[in-house]
Design a protein that fits this description.
Blueprint (H helix, E strand, L loop, with lengths): L3 H30 L3 H27 L19 H28 L3 H31 L5 H11 L8 H5 L1
Helix pairs in contact: 1-2, 1-3, 2-5, 3-4, 4-5
């Protein structure tokens, strides 16, 4: 049985994951407005991944006889100065998610709820991968630069991370 304290922390994690999903959705939209369809595809995929994380936690809460709550989601940033600033914001968002994951993991360990602690290890590993990914993207952007053809090559680099040609928002929704 899930403690009320851990149930609350997991529901907060559901909210954190939902916000991350919406933030990536906003980034995908911005990229499309900039003509960066490959980057948009990457951020649509990130949004979908975060949503799946949210649902996995939501379902876990209910499976252990807690009460999962549908989160209210604060409007994410929708305006960005450029691709570099946007990726830096994405990294900062991932770092916030990591801190939240660690908080839930520590709480589960403190409460000796080993099932929840074990469940959260997936997210610990996932967050390490996400932070590495966004640091790598920032390194690639620095190497490529944003002047001249730089924006084009950055778009192609991000598209390559998703493994295919870029969809429009309409195709991503289907």
């Amino acid at each position: 049985m899930l403690s009320k304290t851990l149930e609350k922390a997991l529901n907060e994690q559901v909210s954190v994951e939902a916000h991350a999903s919406y933030a990536y959705l906003a980034m995908a939209s911005w990229c499309e407005q900039q003509g960066m369809t490959g980057a948009a595809k990457f951020f649509f995929a990130q949004s979908t991944e975060e949503r799946s994380h949210m649902l996995k936690i939501f379902n876990y809460i209910n499976s252990v006889k807690g009460h999962a709550l549908a989160p209210a989601v604060k409007q994410p940033s929708v305006k960005f100065k450029g691709i570099v600033e946007m990726v830096k914001e994405a990294l900062a968002n991932e770092q916030k998610v990591t801190a939240s994951v660690y908080k839930v993991s520590e709480l589960a360990q403190d409460e000796k709820d080993y099932a929840t602690y074990n469940f959260m290890q997936y997210y610990v590993d996932e967050q390490r991968e996400e932070e590495v990914l966004f640091n790598h993207i920032l390194e690639r952007i620095e190497l490529i630069g944003t002047e001249g053809m730089g924006k084009y090559y950055i778009d192609k680099e991000l598209e390559a991370l998703t493994g295919g040609s870029a969809p429009t928002a309409e195709k991503a929704a289907n």
